[in-house]
Specification:
The complex is a heterodimer of chains A (349) and B (805). Chain A contains 2 helices and 23 strands. By secondary structure, chain A is mainly beta. Chain A is globular. In chain B, strands 11, 12, 13, 14, 15, 16, 17, 18, 19 and 20 form a 10-stranded mixed beta sheet that branches. An 8-stranded mixed beta sheet of chain B has the order 6-5-7-4-3-9-1-10, with helices on both faces. A two-stranded antiparallel ribbon of chain B has the order 2-8. The chains are: A mainly beta (349), B alpha+beta (805). At the A-B interface, helix 1, helix 2 and strand 4 of A face helix 3, helix 4 and helix 6 of B.
Chain lengths: 349, 805
Amino acid sequence: MNVRSVLTIFIAGWATEALPQGYAGLGTEAGGFSVPELGGQLSFPRDHGAHPDFRIEWWYLTANLTDTGGNDYGIQWTLFRSALAPGEAEGWQSPQIWMAHAAVTAPDQHLFAERIARGGVGQAGVLADPFDAWIGDWQMRSTGEAIERMEITASGQEFSYELQLFADGPLALHGEDGYSVKSASGQASYYYSQPHYQVSGTLDLPGGPIAVTGRGWMDREWSSQPLAEDQSGWDWFSLSFDSGDKLMGFVLRGERGDFTSGTWITADGKAEPLAPGAFYAEALAASDVQGRQVPTRWHASLPEKGVSIEVQALNPKSWMGTTFSYWEGPVSVSGSHSGKGYLEMTGYE
Amino acid sequence: MIRSALSAILSHWRRHPLQLATLMAGLALATGLWSAVQAINGEARASYARAAEQLGTTAADRLAPEGGTITLQQYASLRRSGWQLTPVLEGTVRFKRQSFDIMGIDLLSHPLVPALAEAAEQDSVPALDALLPPGRFFAHPETARMLAAAQSEHPITETDRLPPGVLIADISLASRLLRQPDSLSYLLILPDQVSGLTPLQHLAPGLIRIPARSAAADTARLTDSFHLNLTAFGLLSFAVGLFIVQGTISLSLEQRRGMIRTLRGLGVPMRVLVVLLAAELAVVALISGTAGLAGGYLVAAALLPDVQATLAGLYGAAVDGSLGLRLEWVLSGLAMACSGTFLAGAQALYDLWRMPLLAAPAPQARGQQAIRSHKAAACAGALCILAGIAIIALFQGLLAGFVFLSGLMLGAALVLPLLIATGLRIGARLSTRPFTEWLWADTRAQLPGMSLALMALLLALATNIGVGTMVSSFRLTFIGWLDQRLAAEVYVTAVSDQQGTRLTQWLEDQGITVLPIRRSEIRYKGAPLRVYGVADDETYRLNWPLLEALPGVWDRVAAGEALLVNEQFARRHDLSPGLSLALAPDWELTIAGIYSDYGNPNGQVITSLAALLDREPDIPNRQFGLRLPAEDVPEIVSSIREVFEIPRENIVDQAGIKARSLSIFDRTFTITSALNLLTLGVAGFAMLTSLLTLWSQRLPQLAPVWAMGLSRRQLAGAEILRSLLLAAFTAVLALPLGLVLAWALLAVINVEAFGWKLPMHLFPGDWLRLILLALLAAAVAAALPARRLSRLDPAELLKVFANER
């Protein structure tokens, strides 16, 4: 028994009990936690910070980068907050648990690391204003207004990176002003993104430091019960087309049928929510990753916008072998539109 | 030829079965006591190692504060600099009247987590409840049973992958119970750190890094002295047992000189004979060694519960109750038996080797030789004593103390025959009647055969006097100290802080002085240190057992500018009044005094309660000492019970606590007195065997005296008288030796072993009893040969004149 499975027992105790209702326990009852409400107004910078009354929350940054030689890379910086009980308390009594994942992906390598820390004692947390999210020495910190300019750092045994972000477009609120429905039976989360980051900085890989530039996308989401009971995982696309338009689309896989939704973000930053079923995606080919069959080539379409594309993983082996394991990696887009993006797939256990 | 020679050699034992029994019994005793002590030590050490491993302390280096505790802020900032650390908060919690050691860990990151998670999984409990109030304990089944009897609020997961005596809980529960929301005892440095981090010594200069292995050796180091003590006792018993063995081997070889001469005359080479004799000894050693091991195992099993109690009481070290059988223990026991036998037999075999082919067997002549060897032995003895003194003058430490003691004891034993011989010569010179003159002279002639038994008696008596004086002095001091320390008439433990506050108010309304007993636990140089806050009250001024103090000590403590430290802490860190001590980086106080604090393995300091509360307002407020006239005690106790819901066992009067403390004390020294008694028994047995083996040789000396007209009854009386005389001489010499031993134990060994120096008290009554016991043993030992003598057929005595042997 390794430490990872142990952690799963402790922090995901509720998850293992609740399974198979959804990935990472997201299908469980709200039990005393706040739930997202339609019409609840998001307010910034307050909502860049943590919402301890909700069960789960994340700050999820991905970026597609290129070095001076034209080689592609992807990076991930994610901070999860998971509450054992609603609310916050002093010191060790805090029921908040923080977990972070960082990864660097290149066509031939995928390096990742994980950090876990308890809340309440200062080793991990998120402040809204000035924005600062950290766990240990990993940090995502504002260097300007709100989250417009940021600096992120993370390091693992074999890699580290230090990147500057500058948002050249507005926030995109998903669903109805940030109220994003996740199932036909009405499960929802608060969900917004900042998909317009220019990124530059340095990746430190086993071969040495590499200067990179590119585009980044940050997702912010919190909820207490975002999945329906029959839903077991999702396939999530965040794609930036060369035209400047962007597409966030997801498929929540359920026993009683898949639920798809998403947001079309125009080149000037306007977010248009997609009706359920408007977006769809089907797997074209699967790869054997860590003993699992994971689809790494997809066909996705959004007929109302004339989108019919093929999405191909930069590195099919982008498996995050962390406490909760999933596939997360950069993708390239071809077909009706071309571009780059990130794909996340969960529930392929 | 070899077979015939062997059967001739072995036939000796057929004719002297008692001698064989003595030899084997002596060897078995020596091996048995030694192995018993080794088994106990081995079990305890294995237990510590297991505990350290089970607690995960061997898995990672530790980062411990030089003094005080680690704050959460400090921990968080180390984490934020990239170090992967996991926090530990240790302390003691009380449920009902019982104390438990608790180790609070972060259940998300501590190396112990796999074992706990596995246990939780087997228990099929929701693991999550360990992290949320009320919180869950993890404990060894034995400890879990005790805990379950004392509390029911927190569920317990039992797992034998934890050592007994410690509760593991998530740090959230531990910090709640210990009321230390903001402090940590130490941090474990997890493996797999990212490279290129700022070194810890730069980030946290106040924290010291303790390597994993030495952190695990904490208990072992603390209890080393105890085990060294036991080892010394074991070695002493072994030595005393070997005296018996040596005596018997010499005698058996001497009695076989005639036979050996005959065998050599028949053409058996000396080399073959020596090999045969050595083989005979080896077989005897193996058989007796095995018997000794079996006995030793039983003795160890019988003593282990007391050792457990001692270790738990003195050092807070938990030892498993079961005794395992280890191969290395068996092998080392047998090796000790064999090497001991050869050591004991070497001289006799060497003498045999050098014996001229046709030398006449002449045991009588050995008397002259013996006087020369007495002088040589006395010189060697004096050298041993001097070497011991030199060692203790030059070196410090427990080992030097034991070397001094061994030098002293061995030296005194070696000097003994010369001293007795001199005494006997003086006695002979003073006597006027022929019979007494003969008695003195004959006693002296017997001395060579008796001297080893007498040495054993000397060592046993001196040890008994020394250890007895040490324990009794300690007990007396301890009782006096209890009187001072437990000055309050009644001690009450409230069930909650709120109740504590109400109780204080209520008692003060009755006009009773309430002395709160409040403490916080920190770490100083990696070891636990308890900081007590005391109110400014004359109870302390009048009674507290101060050993050394600056003028105005209590005023300075009350003003919050000074503290008192206990003796063991002062000795451990070389502190003295006037120096200052940093309890935390920003909290440095002058040491105003040192107080005695017996029976406590850990450091302790006392400072003003107000000053302590300023820094740690949340420390528990549940224990109180009450000052009131003694006659009011029963009434107040019963009215406290009426007004407050305080369990009966939470209210203890002074006499109750004293009785409990003394019973713990007495239990602590059970093992010491048991070993003491066993050593004395071995020495008595040595006397008996010497007299029994000598007796058969004495006929040639007694026959002429008998022929001159002394009756057999008179001869028998003389026999007993002689034995008494020798025992009395030995006892008189053992007394000063025992007192020096007591001094060394109190002033050297105790200081090193426990950290406290004790005044020496003299107990002449005990000595008298011991000397009488020794005389009684001598009389009993002589009684059997004397009885045989008085009933001896005169024909046997006449035979002496017919054929010399």
